[in-house]
Amino acid sequence: MAFYSGKTRNIQFRQKQLRTLLKFTQDQEKEICEPIFEDLQKPYAEILLSELAFVRNEIVTALQELPQRVESNRVSKPFIHQFDDCMIRYEPLGTVLVMGAWNYPIQECYPVIFGGLNLAEAVLKQRFDHVFYTGGSFVGKIVLEAASKHLTPVTLELGGKSFFKNVKSHMQHNVTAMNNLHQSFFQSVHVSLMTSVISTFLLNASLGGKYVNSSQQRYSTKMSGRIEGSIEKIYGNLGRRVARLIDKKKVAVGGEIDREDKFISPTVLIGTEPNDPIMQEEIFGPVLPIVNIATVDQAINLVHCR
User: Fold this and answer.
1) Any idea which fold 163-305 has?
2) Domain range annotation of the chain
3) Higher pLDDT, 81 or 104
């Protein structure tokens, strides 16, 4: 392998590779953006901002800082090593497998191969010096188990739940409903961060009716239309998974599912219980579950249990 031959350790070689990658993202910008739009319906401007701009900035930063990053640092030494030359020397990690999330194929890792769980399991049979994985806990467990067979170090960036609570009896229902709907549903298919800003809403039970009425009004006037390339478009296995998480008996707003047109409308669920399936993982879709709580302490305990 090239790494063990020592060829890739040279700093000039690594800088050349980075410059080549930077030039590629510039020369092939259209070829990179078009398939992302076809697969995820991300607008061109969003791809440039949330994908390529991040990658290019990281490359430029690495080019500037690489000489300092690899520079050895001398350290203080105990008495028994007074005649030794002691330093911290930084070495490349080796052959690293980066498994990025599907919603950011360029930003999180520049992929060599695309595929689902079966492909991931096949790749993990190979030996790597380190594995980085971004995604859900289900596949994360598979990654960790597979890597353990080779004692490969693993870094897991796993998704989860981020709660929003509002137990104030005097809250402005219209404003709160508007903010929650937009924060929860804006690019909710693409952006795990945005779905985690308010992935679950903790609401005082006595306020539920007023909040739901405000949400229904906001939805009907602002968000009910089907816009081509909008956040409601969900594809393949993701759409089927999100559809299974929607309990029809608990739908207060939206809830429209059109499998043929691959459409799921922005949806608010009421009366959600902590052990419901939708509370067990990141949603990655336009669905906002509401959990009724009575006190701030109850809300805190619920969050701690997660």
Assistant:
1) Aldehyde Dehydrogenase; Chain A, domain 2 (3.40.309)
2) 2-158, 163-305
3) 81
| pLDDT tens column, 24-34 | 999 999 998 88
**Inter-residue long-range contacts of 4-8, CB under 8 Å, 24+ positions, other chains counted:** 8/92
C-alpha 211, offset from chain centre: 29
Residue spans of beta strands (DSSP E) within 192-286:
200-204, 251-253, 257-258, 263-264, 267-269
CB of 185 closer than 8 Å to CB of 147 = no
The amino acid that residue 260 corresponds to is E
Percent of the chain with pLDDT over 70: 70
Query: What pLDDT, on a 0 to 100 scale, did the predictor assign at position 100?
Result: 79
Which of 89, 88, 100 has the alpha carbon at shortest distance from 155? Answer: 100
Topology of domain 2-158, per CATH? Aldehyde Dehydrogenase; Chain A, domain 1 (3.40.605)
Torsion on CA atoms 117, 123, 129, 132, rounded to nearest 10: -20
CB 290 within 8 A of CB 199: no
Minimum mean pLDDT among 91-95, 104-108, 134-138, 230-234: which range? 230-234
Please give the Cα distance from 203 to 215 (Å, whole number).
13
Work out whether the CA dihedral 243, 244, 245, 251 comes out positive or negative: positive
* pTM of full prediction above 0.85: no
- The tens digit of pLDDT for each residue in 123-177 reads 888 889 999 988 777 788 989 999 999 999 999 988 766 655 554 544 454 445 4
Q: CA 202 to CA 171: how far, in whole Å?
A: 13
Cα separation of 300 and 72, whole Å? 46
CB 98 within 8 A of CB 109: yes
